[in-house]
């Protein structure tokens, strides 16, 4: 099945790429999660729009990514969330929460889609989060989760 990616998918491509995948993979995984749309002749117009939006968000060079990495890794990001007596959170910390906390701590704007959580953050304390700034540049951010 021919599809147009709307988000970056590891091992498959970036937003705006037209790729050929197995029908079941597209139908059961990519399309329901909004990672892709079906390819049509009219969809070619969408590809150009998706590529333009990606170009605006994208970090262009490795040097620029390394500069942002230095700024991010120098930060201490603190989040205040509601938690129970044993230190378990009511809910979890999301990539959007981390992106806004980085901005509030004086860091650069980070796209929430670039923040990778190994597992959901559901406890108080220190956690390590990775931010994929460029295909070759990954930054590690320390996140301190405290009770509100």
TrEMBL record:
Domain Ribosomal protein L9 as annotated: residue spans: 13-40
Gene Ontology cellular component list: ribosome
One family name in Pfam for this protein: Ribosomal_L9_N
Keywords noted in UniProt: Ribonucleoprotein, Ribosomal protein, RNA-binding, rRNA-binding
Family in the record: Belongs to the bacterial ribosomal protein bL9 family.
Role of this protein: Binds to the 23S rRNA.
Name of the protein this chain belongs to: Large ribosomal subunit protein bL9
Gene of this entry: rplI
């Amino acid at each position: 099945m021919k599809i147009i990616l709307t988000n970056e998918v590891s091992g498959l491509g970036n937003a705006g790429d037209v790729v050929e995948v197995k029908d079941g993979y597209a139908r059961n995984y990519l399309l329901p999660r909004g990672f892709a749309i079906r390819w049509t002749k009219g969809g070619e117009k969408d590809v150009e729009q998706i590529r333009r939006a990606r170009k605006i968000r994208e970090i262009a060079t490795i040097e620029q990514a390394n500069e942002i990495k230095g700024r991010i890794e120098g930060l201490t990001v603190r989040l205040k969330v509601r938690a129970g007596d044993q230190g378990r959170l009511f809910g979890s910390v999301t990539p959007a929460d981390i992106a806004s906390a980085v901005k509030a701590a004086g860091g650069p704007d980070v796209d929430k889609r670039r923040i990778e959580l190994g597992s959901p953050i559901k406890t108080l304390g220190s956690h390590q989060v990775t931010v994929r700034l460029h295909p070759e540049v990954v930054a590690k951010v320390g996140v301190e989760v405290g009770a509100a």
